[in-house]
Amino acid sequence: MRGNIQEHRRAHLRVRTRGASAGVLRQRVVLVVLALFALQLGSLIAPAYACGCGAMIPDRGSRMAVDRETSVVSWDGRVERIQMRFTVDGDAPEAAWIMPVPTRATVELGDQALFDELERAIEPEERTRRYFWPREGDWPLSDGSAGDSAGAPAPGAGAPGVGVVGRERLGDFDVARLTATDPEALRSWLKTNGFELPDGLETELRPYVRQKWEYVAVRLAPDTEDAVLRGTLDPLTLRFASDRPVYPMRLSRLAKNPQSLGLFVLAAHRMEPQSAIGGDEPEVLFAGAADRSAALDAFTGGGGRFLTALEQEFPRPDRINGDHVLRAAEQDTPFRRVVYEDELLTVGGFPVWLLTVGGGLALVTVIVLLRVRAHRRRPVLPPPPVHAPPPLS
Fold this sequence. Notes:
By secondary structure, this protein is an alpha+beta fold. About 25% of the residues lie in helices and about 35% in strands. It is built from six helices and 22 strands. Strands 3, 4, 6, 11, 12, 14, 16, 17 and 19 form a nine-stranded mixed sheet that branches. It has a six-stranded antiparallel sheet with strand order 1-2-5-10-9-8. The protein is rod-shaped. Mean pLDDT is about 75; it is low at about 15-20, about 30-50 and about 145-155.
């Protein structure tokens, strides 16, 4: 009897233990689901804090990501021109970014045709490589499936420490050109005038303030009601005096996501960055003379015609440690990427391997047949006579 009572108690305890474990498990599952939901929600409202050339942020409560930034830099030894084009995605009706420049800059809308021409110029050369033996997808290794499937305010007085050189409306852009002797005052002016920019900006601006650089602040605000910033935006062109070609990148340290930069450089020689400035090593996509065109002449002013196309990734933007300073390479060695298309070697539409193997088999068959035929036609000789042995004496 006592043994039955103890067994009953142990069974009851096991049931309570299983119930408690199930309750703890349910609580953990709920906590994990809530954590994942919060993480997903945070990713939807987190702004893209920077682009490759300067700090960028959308209005609060919106999201925007700079999917791609492509810029063209032209330098003739005295004057530098930068034309920028952004491809963005999100639901932000407005956003702003700031770009430091070493001297007083002029700003105007760019020409989309310039990017189209340069992208065509650097297209890889296509070559055909033929192979002998069939590969996957070729008969008889094929499975038979188909192939791969609003006008801006007029210039006015800025806050103490900030000078407003000019302010104008260019298409969807509200552009302010500024000077500053105090990074905190510059941030305050930007915030007061509708340029909402990320925390920590004044810290990253200090090196430029010490060097007495100026700034181009751009607010992207489409005129169309209920419009959002999505797709490829109109390009902007900046022009300023410079004794060396430089592409500002320091403010991209504020970015929260990996950055990608495509850079076309037009100068008298093949150009290269002095360092990787904390990103992956820049990859050369093209180097060579650029063909003359109306868009190219208008952008360069008839200057340097040697085109260098560079691509660079920044997996950790917080490691960016400076601006891209460009220099002439040791030699103007031309370079173009080559894309190979592999093709099965054929003659008259027939695979050469099949003709070769089939011809070889046919030749062997013919030789065998001829030998068999010759063997059959050979006369059969009678066996030699058998002579009786001599009698024994």
